[in-house]
Amino acid sequence: MKTFPDTTLTIVAPAWAQAWLRQLAAPLTFRMTAPEEIGQQEPALLLFLVPTHAALFERQMREWTARWPACRFIGWTAAHRPDDSDIFRLINAGVQALLPETSDSEDLYRACRDVLQGDIHLNCHVTQAMLHFLRRQQILKTKSTDGLMSPRECRMVELRREGKTAEEIADRLCLSRKTVDKLFCELYRKTGTRNFFELLKTYEQRTYQPWAGPGSTEPFPATNSLR
Questions:
Q1: What is residue 43's DSSP assignment?
Q2: Beta-carbon count within 10 A of 74 CB
């Protein structure tokens, strides 16, 4: 893992999240601080836990961007899974990268690299929100695969419904546990659900006909389109 010379990542997190974030940021040069101990010195790069309420993070970002105009901000969304509108509000408030709870050290490195270059880090959180917006506005007039589940995704839902753990699902499908977690995260995003119970309800209410991919002559089932 590469590091960034002369750049220290400042991590602002409550006590319950600090051990996990220390492991996540281990390959980088970082300092950990609690929200109430952040101090006045301007950090170059700041990773923070995104609050669950929009008003809280907007007020927090207004305070930080006014205090540290040159700082780059990365949000960690472990406390909740933000919806599309929250993602846009975060970006408009000054956040340049959003990392889900399933992120690893390589994901954090790529986010740091992008924001230090002045770019927005385009991971699945941000790109899916952008695609959804473009489709709703009919700016992007392509057929959407939103709500269409692949055979592997369907099997994952069925195994979880049977009571299998993430480790058991990973073993059955020859995947890593981290990959299973990431795939479920993407499934929640794709189907517009917030947890497995909502995902299962969506799955059972629809007759899924998985999309065969580019070039397929199969129609897109209208019942599967979550626009």
A1: P
A2: 22
Enter the tokens of residue 143: 């057929």
CATH number of the domain where residue 32 is located: 3.40.50.2300
Element (H, E) at 193: none
User: How distant is the alpha carbon of residue 17 from its chain centre?
Assistant: 17
CA distance 198 to 226: 14
Position 141 in a domain: no
> Torsion angle, CA of 191/194/196/198, rounded to 10 degrees?
-70
* 31 three-class SS: strand
Answer left, alpha or beta for residue 178, where phi above 0 means left and psi between -120 and 50 means alpha. Answer: alpha
- What's the domain count of the chain? 2
* pLDDT tens, position by position, 50-105: 877 767 777 888 888 888 999 999 988 876 667 788 888 888 889 999 888 778 88
